[in-house]
């Protein structure tokens, strides 16, 4: 893909760069800065207020101020001609276009896509496989935002890859840096017998609103939005900045203002989730008509644009505005932008939401459409080769309804498979080297990219996750689902704090000379949804070699000491204090 520019194009691009430099306008001495206008005005005004208060902008805010990333695409292409490695400020800018330079882990780019509700067609999926094979490393990763990453993209292949994706209707615009990330929704939207609402139209509407609203880019920090329709597979909307949770409002329900509320399905509004900072999105008491979700989300983002921290990246998420203001003040500001009062209702007036099925993302499950099924494909910590992608795309085309549905559990579903086509689909999945059924350990095994592809990660998370499964599966016969999450750094891409067992990478010192090896801090008792909870630290500085045995001890302690066969691991872990748990594990490891 690197040989895409003709000599004439090269000369034109070089001339463009020279001309752009020549026409830069130098402001007159002592001139007053003009009031910001245009689509980026709100961001410029927020930066100006910060400076007027005598504060210092974060470097990323300075970079955005010096050159808008969306106006630098031509320069990105020019530098790609020479295979140039980006400077830090350009590495930040190129992320607006979906390219992340990940050196020193890999001397190459990673590209992250935008797939609303995590759903794409079989031909788009096969097309991405072809693109990743030509311009990347020959594989993709499914992420915890029901998204895809293409890796090992050399600089000269970056722009051609972006443009090839656009040719098949896939965009990566704003998938990184200070922007609203991939919009997640219920993976089984429209086909789930248990769902309250089909999230696809609402996730898609928000997706297109972002793409077509320049103001929605360049936020104080990244921003996550998710729609959960009450289906069997959890969307983890409570880990997002904005979580729209489908709820049923019974007939005769009254709002907090004493006015009756129309019965039916609404979205309950939760705000401020960021589990890497040990906080879930909290219920605001507000419910939103599904058709109004985009309007409400837009107003929330605009308040964040005006008041998010532009000086301290560690405190620049929505959670910290909510912590400083409180929910009541924040919602008043949202209502001022909307020009109307939000509907508030007591939680007791809402019907209980359907329970999740923690194994619904793997295996065969009947759809609401009679005679049709979805098949959850097991991917080893989210990785699949381009050859496997093409096989799955063809199975979706010939045996299913043509959709590929990614999940936040790093796997995918093939939907619309008739009963009579199940045997063929299963056989072909297995022939690809993948599976459609698995153990409770492997079904909930989540791992970020790790230090093989991320400069921040302290450990090789994907390899160590598989080592845990390989060690524990023949030794521990689990009869309950369990989630084991491995994340490489404080960014918590694999959300270790919500795992039954959560591990965060660390360098572990192993002798008096200070030699270090890869390892983890191990946490227990996390959860999400109705079982939401932040996992507690149980062990620090466990070497990667020792982690599988330590996890085995935990699982054995759980099976031997749970209150009854129905007690889940998180409930067991929360019922014991850390000292008790460590004693139980020690006893198991000595047995």
Helicity range: 25-40%
Q: What is the rounded distance between the termini? A: 57 Å
Q: Report the sheet with the most strands, covering strand number, pairing sense and barrel closure.
A: 6 strands, mixed
Which word captures the global form? globular
Task: Outline the secondary-structure elements.
Elements: H1 7-22, H2 41-52, H3 59-66, H4 73-81, H5 88-94, E1 99-101, E2 109-112, E3 119-121, H6 122-135, E4 139-142, E5 148-153, H7 158-167, E6 184-185, H8 200-211, E7 225-228, E8 242-249, E9 264-271, E10 282-288, H9 293-307, H10 318-325, H11 327-338, E11 343-344, E12 363-366, E13 372-377, E14 383-385, H12 386-399, E15 403-406, E16 412-418, H13 422-431, H14 440-443, E17 445-447, H15 461-472, E18 484-487, E19 501-509, E20 516-524, E21 536-543, H16 547-561, H17 569-575, H18 578-590
Parallel strand pairs: 6-7, 7-8, 17-18, 18-19
Antiparallel strand pairs: 1-2, 2-5, 3-15, 4-5, 4-14, 8-9, 9-10, 10-11, 12-13, 13-16, 15-16, 19-20, 20-21
Helix pairs in contact: 1-4, 2-9, 3-5, 6-7, 6-12, 9-11, 10-11, 12-13, 15-16, 16-18
Polypeptide structure, described:
- With 591 residues, this protein is of the alpha+beta class.
- Helix content is 34%, strand content 18%.
- The protein contains 18 helices and 21 strands.
- The chain has a 6-stranded mixed sheet. A 5-stranded antiparallel sheet has the order 1-2-5-4-14. Strands 3-15-16-13-12 form a 5-stranded antiparallel sheet.
- Helix 3 crosses helix 5.
- The chain is globular and about 75 Å long.
- The protein starts with 6 loop residues before the first helix and ends with a helix.
- The model is unreliable at 18-29 (pLDDT under 50).
């Amino acid at each position: 893909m690197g040989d895409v520019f003709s000599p004439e194009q090269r000369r034109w691009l070089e001339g463009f760069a020279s001309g752009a430099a020549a026409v830069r306008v130098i402001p007159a001495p002592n001139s007053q800065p003009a009031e910001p206008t245009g689509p980026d005005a709100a961001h410029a005004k927020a930066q100006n207020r910060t400076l007027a208060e005598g504060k210092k902008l974060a470097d990323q805010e300075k970079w955005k101020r010096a050159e808008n990333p969306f106006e630098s695409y031509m320069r990105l292409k020019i530098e790609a001609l020479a295979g140039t490695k980006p400077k830090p400020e350009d590495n930040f800018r190129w992320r607006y276009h979906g390219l992340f330079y990940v050196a020193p882990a890999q001397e190459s780019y990673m590209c992250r896509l935008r797939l609303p509700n995590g759903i794409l067609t079989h031909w788009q999926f096969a097309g991405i496989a072809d693109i990743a094979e030509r311009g990347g490393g020959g594989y993709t990763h499914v992420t915890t935002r029901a998204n895809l990453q293409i890796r090992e993209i050399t600089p000269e292949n970056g722009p051609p890859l972006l443009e090839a994706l656009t040719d098949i209707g896939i965009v990566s615009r704003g998938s990184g840096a200070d922007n609203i990330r991939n919009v997640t929704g219920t993976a089984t939207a429209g086909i789930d017998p248990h769902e309250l609402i089909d999230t696809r139209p609402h996730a898609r509407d928000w997706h297109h609103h972002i793409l077509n609203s320049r103001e929605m880019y360049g936020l104080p920090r990244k921003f996550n939005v998710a729609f959960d329709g009450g289906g069997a597979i959890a969307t983890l909307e409570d880990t997002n900045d904005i979580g729209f949770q489908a709820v049923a409002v019974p007939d005769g329900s009254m709002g907090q203002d004493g006015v009756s509320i129309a019965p039916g399905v609404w979205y309950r509004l939760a705000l401020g989730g960021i589990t890497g900072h040990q906080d879930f999105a909290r219920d605001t008491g507000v419910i939103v008509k599904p058709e109004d979700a985009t309007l409400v989300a837009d107003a929330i983002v605009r308040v964040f644009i005006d008041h998010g921290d532009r000086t301290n990246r560690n405190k620049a998420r929505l959670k910290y505005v909510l912590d400083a203001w409180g929910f009541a003040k924040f919602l008043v500001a949202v209502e001022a932008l909307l020009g109307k009062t939000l509907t508030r209702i007591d939680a007791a007036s809402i019907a209980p939401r359907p329970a999740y099925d923690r194994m619904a993302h793997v295996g065969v499950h009947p759809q609401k459409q009679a005679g049709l099924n979805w098949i959850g494909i097991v991917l080893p910590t989210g990785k699949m080769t381009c050859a496997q992608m093409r096989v799955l795309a063809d199975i979706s085309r010939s045996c299913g309804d043509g959709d590929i549905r990614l999940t936040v559990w790093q796997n995918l579903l093939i939907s619309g498979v008739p009963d009579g086509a199940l045997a063929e689909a299963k056989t072909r999945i297995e022939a690809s080297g993948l599976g459609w059924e698995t153990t409770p350990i492997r079904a909930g095994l989540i791992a970020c990219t790790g230090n093989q592809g991320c400069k921040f990660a302290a450990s090789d998370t994907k390899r160590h996750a598989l080592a845990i499964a390989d060690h524990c599966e023949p030794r521990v016969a689990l009869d309950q689902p369990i989630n084991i999450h491995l994340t490489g750094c404080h960014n918590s891409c694999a959300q270790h704090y919500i795992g039954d067992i959560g591990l965060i990478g660390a360098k572990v010192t192993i002798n008096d000379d200070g030699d270090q090896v890869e390892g983890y801090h191990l946490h227990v008792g996390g959860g999400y949804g109705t079982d939401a909870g932040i996992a507690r630290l149980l062990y620090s500085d466990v070497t990667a070699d020792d982690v599988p045995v330590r996890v085995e001890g935990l699982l054995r302690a759980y099976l031997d000491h749970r209150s009854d066969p129905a007690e889940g691991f998180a409930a067991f872990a929360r019922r014991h204090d850390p000292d008790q748990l460590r004693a139980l594990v020690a006893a198991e490891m000595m047995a």
